[in-house]
Amino acid sequence: MSQPASITPATAETARQVVSAKNLGLTFQTNDGPVQALSNVDLTIGKGEFVSFIGPSGCGKTTLLRVIADLEKPSSGSISINGMSAEQAREKRAYGYVFQAAALFPWRTIERNVALPLEIIGLPKAEQAKRIARTLDLVNLTGFEKKYPWQLSGGMQQRASIARALAFDADLLLMDEPFGALDEIVRDHLNEQLLELWGRTEKTICFVTHSIPEAVYLSTRIVVMSPRPGRVTDVIESTLPKERPLDIRETPEFLAIAARVRDGLRAGHSYED
């Protein structure tokens, strides 16, 4: 009887890779000529990581997220999601996507907004109901199922948007600056809730932000990007514990990581006209 193939460290590591980008580049063709948005991006994101992308406006953070989601096609290099092409991953609904704005339909209740992608893929009503209840519970919106978006605060609307992305039950969650338009107090609260959600679900999260404290507070790794064309100039491993109360932001360890992120942003930024 043949023996099962052994798992080498290399194959085990590959199996844990959720996102793998190699020499990735993207150039947009515009009326004013080509615009290089991404250049030579090499990045691997492992299962269960919380990875933030930070950099100046226009550096390609959102573009990179959109390439992962197969909403943009790279001009060079390669990208794989769970060992598949980005297109295959999209077709298999291997990720959930949370946009900067909640983008909820005002004529649908919260539960019907969350149900929309489930309706599109044709899930039975009973399964839809289970997933809606589960995801609304995950984001602490149980009891608001029958409310309309205009009856909820901005923070609650974003939580509903996260619930909709979670309804697929995909292992990968892509988040494009979801809390950027919210005030600081609400943002802090949602940061705490997002960390709790990540701990409960063990999903892999890719998170775009302009905020250094937010990136440091949330992440296991922070990807620092340069101005256009977007390149990865530093990848910073967080040494913070998984359990992170808000006051951890006042500790020397937190401030040291934040200082390294700030230095990386300054080093990668060109101040020449």
General description of the model:
This protein has nine helices and ten strands. Strand 7, helix 7 (184-201) and strand 8 form a beta-alpha-beta unit. The protein has helices at 9-16, 61-68, 86-91, 110-120, 125-138, 154-166, 184-201, 212-218, 252-268; strands spanning 17-30, 33-46, 50-54, 76-81, 84-85, 95-98, 172-176, 204-209, 221-225, 232-237. A six-stranded mixed beta sheet has the order 6-7-8-3-9-10, with helices on both faces. Strands 2-1-4-5 form a four-stranded antiparallel beta sheet. The chain is an alpha/beta fold. It folds into two domains: 42-94 and 170-273, Rossmann fold, CATH 3.40.50.300; 104-169, no CATH class.
Taken in chain order, the helices and strands follow as HEEEHEEHEHHHEHEHEEH
What number of domains?
2
Strand order of the largest sheet: 6-7-8-3-9-10
DSSP, total strands: 10
What is the terminal-to-terminal distance? 70 Å
Mean pLDDT: 89
Question: In terms of structural class, how would the helical and strand content be classed?
Answer: alpha/beta
The CATH superfamily label of the largest domain reads: P-loop containing nucleotide triphosphate hydrolases
* Computed Rg: 19 Å
What is the 3D form? globular
